[in-house]
Amino acid sequence: MSKNIRRHSSDSNSEDMRIFAIKTLKMTEEVLTSITKVHPQWKHLVSAVDHRVDRALAILRPQAIADYRALLASLGWPPPLSALTSSHSDARISNQVLNPLQSMQADHKLKYSENFLALCSLQELQRKRKSRQLEGHDREVALRQPLWAIEELVNPLSLASQRHFLKWVDKPEFIFTLVYKITRDYVDTVDEMLQPLVDEAKVVGYSCREEWISAMVTSLSTYFAKEVFPSYISQLDEESVTGIQSSARISWLHLIDLMIAFDKRIISMVEHSGILLSLDDDILQRISSLSVFCDRPDWLDLWAEIELGDALDKLKPDIENENNWKKKIEGVALSSCTDDHKSPLVSSAFVRHLASVVERCRSLPNVTLRSKFLRLVGLPIIRKFIDSILIRCQEAEGLTALTDDDALVKVAISVNAAHYFESVLKEWSEDVFFLEIGVNEDDKVELQSNINSDGEGLPESSNRVVFDDEIKKLEDFRTEWVEKIAVVILRGFDARSREYLKNKKQWQKSEEGWTVSKTLIEALDYLQGKMSVVEEGLNSRDFVGVWRRLAAGIDQLIFHGILLSNAKFHNGGVERFGSDLDVLFGVFGAWCLRPEGFFPNANEGLKLLKMDEKRVQECMIGGKRWLKENGIRHLNVSEAEKILKNRIFTS
Question: Could you give the CA distance from residue 485 to residue 607 in angstroms, rounded to a whole number?
Fold first, then answer.
């Protein structure tokens, strides 16, 4: 066979001999497949036959490819690319003139079909052989190869295109335009003419349209990997040595922008051509120019470094502009909540840059690359945001210990920013894109080690999304600074009500002509003033946290400072104490319907003081059960007894 094919390769019989040889090898493969199943112990015999078949295929495939290439050249393939850029009033007529595959005569079409079928048959034969030989292994990875016949159409086009690419080193957009135009102009012809031949050759799982697009994109990615990115990297290396800023970083980011735009157009072409584009990363990788990063993770690291540096450089003036911290975002609503975040413009700037990173991340062709890129670029941006708001809060605390209104407002703005950013991240985390990314391998190892050490099962945190740790940091930030705001106001209230709390004699009589004790007025005025500042500056959700913490703190102050201080309560004093609490509850009544519910100890203490002598005796006898039956649920028996022992009944 080897001797005859080489000697008579130009004769008409050579094609018949090739077809006969392929049929013979197919029959041999069927016999080998049958023997492998029926007599698996004959593996040495099968291996010997495989060796002979491999020798035959080593002759057949190169000869078939050489004949196919020669035929394409004789047909005028590839067409002159200079004609592709010329405008024509009728695009279809232009394509017919430029496309040798459409202008073939009948005898050429027959010969081309025979060559195409021979290549496809050889490829299908090799696929079946590999499938048998790799039985029990991960066969899909090894079996999936580009369609040889389509590759041979694209290779000469790619070589011809590269001569133009060299002229467009500083204009990469022209490269993408040319590749897209070639891909689009010939995809229909390839599909209409060659898909029936692929089906006739019974090549399983191949679409000529998809193979054409994939081969064109792969040729572009290969060119970038060999020529463009190494050039940029050498410029960056030179920049790091000399310290002289070059345009390499700008050129790199510009090229990435062009690649992302090109991939979107290619995906659109695939989707509109009737091919159902699944979420299979293998398909996305074959039609994405960004697949160049799949084989070069070090380039992805470099891209992430450049991307992060560019984002932080752009954010720096936004952070330093004080107006961006004072002006609020207007007209922004998240679907997850309807709160008025009162967030400053600077948080919107961070979200905008993070969204840009996420959008670029979505363009990467597989989950591993997306996860890595988002962690290298997205998470540092979030951490920069947290650092920025933390520094502002610490500055405000360091200057005045948050005692003046400006400092409170500054902290409130940072809390608002954190709340808005947290809400955005939580809303994004519900997207399937982030759920797919999940946790990286390091996180999984850490979680697994925690299981082994604690002896407990893996919690729901094993299904975390990429932003979970940062969301937790934002939640902790808000909790900490809301607590600090409440504590500062509580301390101010405590300082201004100290005389009120220490004056035990005032509860022996009522305050004539006053609805509230004189010594409490200053504290209440301070409380209302500070809370109005906080309410104006802080978002509604975190403001609830402030006033509830403050109510709990004041409740403890009154309970321990008055009710448990052994102060003697006469009838007039009980009335006076009730009036004071009514005024205090009135302050908090602006934010809830039943403010007394947030002062459980003081309210129940007043309830005990208002009881008559008979019920006081019942309480002293009834103990815990009596307290529960009479709605006293927050005080224990000893506290209730201490309060009632200081109740003085006067006529």
Answer: 31
